[in-house]
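Fold it.
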Amino acid sequence: MQADKGGAMEPDSYRLRTQISLALRNRKKRPDVSAAHGRDGSRVLIASYNVHKCVGTDGRFDPGRIAQVIKEIDPDIIALQEADKRFGERVGLLDLAHLEREVGLSWVGTTGGARSHGWHGNVVLARHSIVRDLHPVRLPGLEPRGALVAELELKSGFRLRVIGAHFGLLRHSRRLQADALSGFVSSRREIPTVLMGDLNEWRLGRGSSLRGLAPLFCDVPAPVASFPSRLPLFALDRIVSDRAGLIGWYGAHDSALSRVASDHLPVKAYVAVV
């Protein structure tokens, strides 16, 4: 992952103060971005969303709000994090049948427990796609973390590998996790790969725990703040690719509902599929 030009040597404390100052100045100017920009057969809309176990910033458990935010985004593919309970049987928290009926998104499956939706809380949903392979990856670190790898054949016939991941809270663990995913993808370069999820890192440049993703993941859009959802300061949620030019427009889904449904805003991007 690369820093902005001229910003690689800035200390984290300086960049953090700058981000907070900018967010406070712009807090009343935030637009309600609740619709996609439009798409055609040459690109699909993908998204990543940490749903915070369906507990909103108001403390309410409400899976219906999460489903409504996903409907606002109207993605072709979406990776969710924290979509299962954390302990025990890791019971899934969303109504997957409702999402398929209302949004047209099908669950790609999992190899987790019988009642869970995902792998360590990671879920991938897709529209008009055939799942050619599904591979869970256990990520190293002190916390139980994982990534779900789905190889999809889209309606156009385009093959795309999607990795939904949730990195750990500890910087050392994130370094190990970034290295592990880069190693996994490096031997599987036959189809384009998109990594998306809550990577729990806002730093850029040499101080970033995500440096291990470079140079393999070379298509890295400028990060956008996604956390906390009510006043976004940190770009914890990312979408990156191993093919230059694969990712087009990229931004946060900042709507009135997404600001309260979870403590993270979703991020979304267009991906070229021709």
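The first helix runs from residue 12 to 26.
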